[in-house]
Amino acid sequence: MNPLEHSPENFENKEEKRPRGLIILLSLSAANILSSLWTSIRSYIAGPLSEEKLDEGLQNLYESVATLKSQGAGETLIQMIEQVINYSIYVNENTFYLNAVLLIITFLVGAVSLFFLFSLKKIGFHLYVLYSFLPVMVMYIVAPSALIPNLNIVFYMIVAGMFALLYAKHLRIMK
Length: 175
Known about the structure:
- By secondary structure, the protein is mainly α.
- The protein has helices spanning about 10-15, 20-45, 50-70, 75-95, 95-120, 120-140, 150-170.
């Protein structure tokens, strides 16, 4: 029996190490989730926007619609922007606090999933997949489906799918 086989350095080398790609992925996800959680908490505390503040925030979208109409842009693009405006107004005026609480819960699920992923636990991957779909479910809970911008759904699904695939690549090292 070789005495070097039981040295502390050997035990450290045998431990499962997190691949660099997983660390980068976790860092990107953590930055996104924590900043979104902070924004949602601040939004909840501040409360719904006044009509003036909401109009001010949507002014760029209103200008985009006017510019697109004057340039003869496709009706579909104009309708998508108008849908974003109507969704924002509806949520601000009717379901603001429900939306804020559900988003806070969503980002907490995301944070917990990252903790488990960092610990190399497969449950973290499953929670991350759940977290990825929660924003879409929240939209359907807080607003009528006619107001939900399809572009948002497509965007969330593409990003969620990409990140889920990147995390799935590391499932083989998780317990």
